Structure formats: structure tokens, C-alpha cells
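SAMPLE LOG
Freezer: B-3
Tube label: C17
Construct: single chain, 230 aa
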Amino acid sequence: MLPILAAMANPGNTSARTEARTEARTEARAAGRPRDARLDTAILSATRELLAEVGYPGLTLEGVAARAGTTKPAIRRRWASRQLLVITALGEIMGTAPTPDTGCTHCDLILGIETIGQAFGGAFGRRTLPALIADLAGDPELDRVFADTLFHPRRATTRAALLRGIERGDLREDADLDLLLDLLAATTYHRVLFGHLPVDDRLAHDVVMTVLDGAATPRWREHYRQRHDG
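STRUCTURE (predicted):
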């Protein structure tokens, strides 16, 4: 129940009336005011810091507001829920830069997969992703926002790297791109979700080389052998 409604329902509750008046004054001052990009940045920065410190289960809008030097209503005007705020913050961590085109297929793929490990490896990912993904199960709209923000953009840019590999003659033309995309990213996410093994500096390289062992052409194998055995 909103504070103002709680105050109306319980006229003797001084605390509820005070909170209602405070939020009403805050909303009134904000009406018609242009959105402050600096405050957006402060809120997202505070969210990332708190995710690293207390994880997703321990993160509250009140805590974010205190860290960012703002109010809970100010956050609510920008993000309708804690989940949407966290997804936006994670999207900034993951970034939107495309997988680099270095002219080297396996180099491009390694750099792309490393992006996932750098964003979610270690305690940060374990404290954030499993609980957030659990929240997606019962909320189709939240699931869509998560996919549009974190899943589809990274998948699309890795697909582009695979297509470049096919054009170069490094990957088989009949390669199942969706299967390759799942194989390339799955190991990192699996380790983040279950925590049974670390997401270390070698993981992206080892995964890419294992996948290419089945999908690469003789041309790529010969080129790689010459570069690394010569």
C-alpha cells in the first residue's frame, strides 16, 4: 500500500502520515523537473557498489538511495522496481560494445566471451545472477527486459563474429550458429550460477578452442598451426 493510502487508512498512525507528507512533497518538487543524468549515474553506481557488497538478495532501494544521496521516490520515478534497476546496472557492467573485429576469428570470439566472465565472474556474479534469474521465472515482462538488455545484444554481436569467421573460411558454412552461441557462453554462465568451478582467465580461451575443434575448417586449423607451431 502506498504511504498516502496507509495514512488515510490509519489516521492515528503518525509515522505513516509523516512518510506520506514527505513523499508527497518530494513528488511535488519533482513535477515538471527535467531528469538529471547525474542522478541516474549516481543511482546506477550505487547499485553496482551494493551488489558487490551485499548481493542482489541484500540490495534495497532504501540502501541505494542512501548511497546515491537521493530518495526512494526519485529512484521509483526512474525504475519501477528493484529488479529493473539491477538489470539496468548489469547492462552497464556488461556493456554494449560489439565483439571486436581483429581479423582473427578465434581472437574475436575469445574477447567476446571474456566480456561475460569479466562482468559476472567471481563473487559478484554469484551474489547477483542466480537470485535475479529466479525472479524472472514468474514475470514474463521482467524476463523480456532482462533478455533485451543482457542476453540478446551480446548474443547478436557474437553471432556477427561467427559470420565473419564463415566469410573468412575459418568456420564451416553448415555450422549451427545457435548451437555454437550456446556452447560458447554456456560454460561461463554455468560456473557463475552453480559456483562449482571458477571463471578464470583461461576459460574463454579454452572454451573457444574446444568449440572450434569441432566447427573450424581445415584452413583455420592450418593457419592456427602455422602461427603457434612455427
